[in-house]
Amino acid sequence: MTTMESLIGLVNRIQRACTVLGDYGGGTGDNAFNSLWEALPTVAVVGGQSSGKSSVLESIVGRDFLPRGSGIVTRRPLVLQLHKTEEGTEEYAEFLHLPKRKFIDFALVRKEIQDETDRITGKSKQISPVPIHLSIFSPNVVNLTLIDLPGLTKVAVEGQPETIVEDIESMVRTYVDKPNCIILAISPANQDIATSDAIKLAKEVDPTGERTFGVLTKLDLMDKGTNALEVLEGRSYKLQHPWVGIVNRSQADINRNADMMLARRKEREYFDTSPDYGHLASKMGSEYLAKLLSKHLESVIRSRIPSILSLINKSIEELERELDRLGKPVAVDAGAQLYTILEMCRAFDKIFKEHLDGGRPGGDRIYGVFDNQLPAALKKLPFDRHLSLQSVKRIVSEADGYQPHLIAPEQGYRRLIEGALGYFRGPAEASVDAVHFVLKELVRKSIAETQELKRFPSLQVELALAANTSLEKFREESKKSVIRLVEMESAYLTAEFFRKLPQEMERPAVANSKNQAASPSPAAQDLYGDGHFRRIASNVSAYVSMVSDTLRNTIPKACVYCQVRQAKLALLNYFYSQISKREGKQLGLLLDEDPALMGRRLECAQRLELYKKARDEIDAVAWVR
Ligand SMILES: Nc1nc2c(ncn2[C@@H]2O[C@H](COP(=O)(O)OP(=O)(O)OP(=O)(O)O)[C@@H](O)[C@H]2O)c(=O)[nH]1
C-alpha cells in the first residue's frame, strides 16, 4: 500500500466509523462529544443548482451513478470514497448502510442513493444532514473522498418547504465553515463569476482562498468569441490554488447515454486542441482535477495528523474520566448490590453530616431558627392583649366567683399565668417545624450532592422517603418534648418569684402610714381599683417574661436533642431496616439506573473504542512514511 492510499484510506475508515456512531459533525449541546469527523480533512463539493456538480463527480469517478432530475436531487450529503484498485479488476460500489452488498451495476447505485435519501427524508423534498456513504472501487479512480452537498438555490419551487433555501445554505455551511474542509467550488463558465453561489460562499468562509479549489464547468457552452482565461488564470478571482476548467457531458450526451470514458477522452481533446486553453491543457480537465485533489488531500491529511492525534488523545482522556464518573455497570448478585447500596448510603450520610456540622452550608439555618425565628415569635405573642386591664379584671373577677379575694387574687394570678403560658405552644411547635424543614432540605441537598447516587433515581427516591419518614418521627418526638416543656411551666409555677411580691405591694402602704388614722389605707383603697389590676398585670407579665427566657433556652435544646442529634445518629436506620427485608430482585430494582445514563455510558464506551482504534490506525499508518 502506498502512503497516499494508506492516509486517505485511513481517513475513510475513521469517517465511516464516525458515521456509524452518529458523528458527522455539527454536534452541539452539553453532551456532545468532540467531533472526530470535524477534525478530519474532507473535500466538500459546493455549487449552485445546475452548475455541473454531479457531472464533475461522475467525471472524476468515470461512471454514471448519480441521481438526476429536476428540483433538488441531492438532499443528503453523499460521502463518496474512491478507492483505486489494480488495473483489470472489476469496478464495484458499496454502501455503508448495506455492507454486504456489492453493486456492479451503477444504475442500481443511482437507485439506491435515491431510495436511501427517501428513507430518511421521506418522499418530501426535505433535506437531511445524515450522510450516505458510498465507496467505489475501481482502477479508473484516484484515492479521494468527496462530499456531494445539495446545490445552493435561490428560490423554493413547488412542493418544497419555504425554508429550503436557508436550510440548504446552512447545511452546506456546517461543512465549509470547518477549517479542515477543502472547498471544491463549482461555477459554470457561461455565467458571470461574480454571481457564482459557490464563490460567494467560499469568499465568506475562506477569504484568503487557502482551502478553496475553483472549478469552472461548461467551458464549451461559452458564447463564441469569448473565453474564460480571466477566471482560469486567476485574474477575476484569485485563489491560492490554480483554477481548473472542465468540460462535462452535455445534456444531449447524457440523454444519448454517452460513455463516460469517451467523455473523458473528448474533454482531453477539447483542451489539447483549444486555441484558448492549449497552454493550460496539462492543468485542465476532470482527470487532472481528481489527481490534484487527491494529492492535496493527502498532504493536508499528513499535516493534520499531529492535531488529529492530539484531539484523539484529549478525547480519550475525557471519555475515560467521564466513564469513571459514570461508574461501573451495576453488579448482578444480591450481596454485591447490597454492598453497593450501603456504600452509597455511607457517602450520603457523610455529606448530610457535613451539612449539619459545617463544611457544607445549611446547618447554620438551624441556628437561625433558634437565634432569630424563635425569639421573634416569642416577642410577638399577644401578652399585651391577654394582660390588658380589661382582660385582667375579667379573669381575676371570674376566678373569685361570688366571694371576692381578700388579699392577693391567688386564683386570678394562676388563671392569668396559665392562659399566658398556653401561648408558648405556638412558637415551640413552629421551632420544631422549622428545624424539620431545614433537615428535610438538607436531606434533599445531600442526595443531590452524592455523586454515587446520581445514577440511581429509584434509590434516590427510596432513600429520600425513608429519611423523611425518620425526620417525621423525630419531629413528633420533638413536638412532644417542647410541649412538655411548656406544660411543665404551667404545671408548677415558681413560687419564689411571687414570694417577693407582697413586700413590694406593701411598700406604698408603709409610705402612707402617717395618714392611716385619718383615711383608709390607699393599699386597701386600691384593692379593687385599676392600680391593683395593673400591678397584677405587671407581675404576671414579669413572670411570663421569665418563663419566656427559660423556654428560649430550653426549646432549642429539645429540638437539637430530638431532631438534629437523632438525624445524625439514626437518619437511615429506618432505611436499613427496610432494605434488610428485601430479596435480591427487589434490591436490583433499587439499582435500576437512569436509562439516559446507561445510554451515555454505552455511547462513551463506543466512542472510546472508536478513538482508540483510530489512534492505533493512525499510529500504524504514520510510521509507514
Ligand atoms: N455542455 C456542457 N454541459 C454541461 C457541463 N457541465 C454540466 N452540464 C450540463 O448541465 C446540466 C446540469 O449539470 P449537473 O451536473 O446535473 O449539475 P448539478 O450542479 O449537479 O445540478 P443539480 O444537482 O440540479 O444541482 C446537465 O444537463 C449537464 O449535462 C459542461 O461542462 N458542458
TrEMBL record:
It catalyses: GTP + H2O = GDP + phosphate + H(+). It comes from the Eukaryota. Coiled coil: none annotated. SMART domains: DYNc, GED. Residues 533-625 form the GED domain. GO terms for molecular function: GTP binding; GTPase activity; microtubule binding. It comes from Brassica oleracea var. oleracea. Keywords: Cytoplasm, Cytoskeleton, GTP-binding, Hydrolase, Microtubule, Motor protein, Nucleotide-binding. SUPFAM superfamilies: P-loop containing nucleoside triphosphate hydrolases. Pfam families: Dynamin_M, Dynamin_N, GED. This is Dynamin-related protein 1E. Residues 37-306 form the Dynamin-type G domain. PROSITE patterns: G_DYNAMIN_1 (PS00410), G_DYNAMIN_2 (PS51718), GED (PS51388).
